[in-house]
Amino acid sequence: MVYRIPYPTELRVNSLEGATVYQIKGIVVHVGSGISMGHYYALVKNQGKWIKCNDTKVEVVEDKDIQIYFGAVPLNDNRRSDWACAYMLLYESSAEE
What we know:
- The protein has 97 residues and is mostly beta strands.
- 0% of the residues lie in helices and 58% in strands.
- The mean pLDDT is 83.
């Protein structure tokens, strides 16, 4: 993805019955030049920490570093198409108001 698209860490869905709040719990990341090629890995939030699961390598990722998966804006005409960016976001219901 060559465009930056920030996603919320919290979603609030209002209905006639009230509001439901969802917290982001997982991100599927794609790195590559197209959907049919490249590499996928996952980030999972567990006990308040982000964990990056990339094949056999598992590591903790700082909260501030999650924004790199928003995608990126190219700085010049040499557009890169292999940026790591969020492909799927997973949210969990956290509370009802």
